[in-house]
């Protein structure tokens, strides 16, 4: 459960919410983009019982995501981009989850940024072939959180958020650079 007062009305810095799509478990992780670097705001998962049909699971996760967006009021949702998979069924399910996330986010008029999983891994580790454990450890290090007690879906989502934070920093640097 996310507290209603987690994000003050007069927050001074942007919030980036990373989302790792799934039809059973959706990972999320939000960071505050403070001047001294990103800070962990919250991370977790939204889950639906596996016994439910896919449409019902997506409906439950969509309700949770809509509530999350309402409480966090992120400036940007950083979402895992669709990718090719050897398992066609898995790729289709991820596509269904992505469609739901895009729809819920667009209804709230929140900016959406999409990154390939390898880009998120590269943003936190410098290469795109990292394991989930390596991603989790480095996300914790970057956020100065020691060890994060979060599911891997949430740390993957935080990596997506950090990928966008890196992009924001690069764009800001490019705008400041003399021409």
**Secondary-structure element pattern, one letter each:** EEEHEHEHHH
Main sheet overview:
5 strands, mixed
What's the total helix number? Answer: 5
- Helix/sheet category: alpha/beta
Q: Which oligomeric state applies?
A: single chain
CATH topology term: Nucleotidyltransferase, domain 5
The CATH superfamily is Ribonuclease H-like superfamily/Ribonuclease H
Sequence of strands across the biggest β-sheet: 3-2-1-4-5
DSSP summary, beta strand count:
5
What would you say this structure looks like, in words?
By secondary structure, the chain is of the alpha/beta class. It has one domain: Ribonuclease H-like superfamily/Ribonuclease H (Nucleotidyltransferase, domain 5, 2-Layer Sandwich), CATH 3.30.420. The protein contains 5 helices and 5 strands. The protein has helices at residues 54-72, 88-107, 117-125, 132-142, 152-176; strands spanning 15-20, 25-34, 37-47, 76-80, 111-115. Strands 3-2-1-4-5 form a 5-stranded mixed sheet. Helix 3 (117-125) packs across helix 5 (152-176). The radius of gyration is 16 Å and the shape is globular.
